[in-house]
Amino acid sequence: MKSSVIIFPGSNCDRDMDVALRKFGFKNQMVWHNDAEIPKSDLIVLPGGFSYGDYLRCGSIAGKSKIIKSVIDFANSGGLVLGICNGFQILTETGLLPGILQQNKYLNFICKNVFVKIKNKENKYFKKIKKEVLELHIAHNEGNYFCSSNELKSIEDNGQIAVTYCDHKGIEDEKNNPNGALKNIAGIFNKDKNILGMMPHPERMIDPFLSGEDGSIFFKTLIESL
Prior knowledge:
By secondary structure, this protein is an alpha/beta fold.
């Protein structure tokens, strides 16, 4: 399986993602944001980081990069597109995913492990995962997901909520909502479930000597599904 990781000025998780994808069998390629075309791929990843320094609004400038047209075309053709953290923000800025990512509720940068509950397994990202709760890592200042009431109804009706913040038992409440996200939302799909954006970093949880292996489950499932 072939994957492509898009690099923007300010990306800082692109190499981590490259390591994770290669570890689990992807033939990965790094693609510069100013390229016009993406090599033949089964998966495109928009990595975490601070594209263009987040100087205007998180992901807003990256959403205008030359490569984005190819990303949109790939997504609209049914290709798998994964956006992690800043990549999630870029997906909302391009309109590929609904809603926005606001500043965290308590106006602070958060960097810690969290638990997330898988809400929909009818997709290639989570279909074969037996666990209901995963431990992943977050590191962001603007991860507070928000959308209009009409958008929320549509997201819920279409099963577009991918993962939510919870405790180790899967309990979703305000105490286990690190950034104030609406409905504890940590990640969402588009209607066709081929696009996934989420704030937690699975690529940071692929080795027991680092901080855990639940990210390994995510990547193993993804390549097996493909």
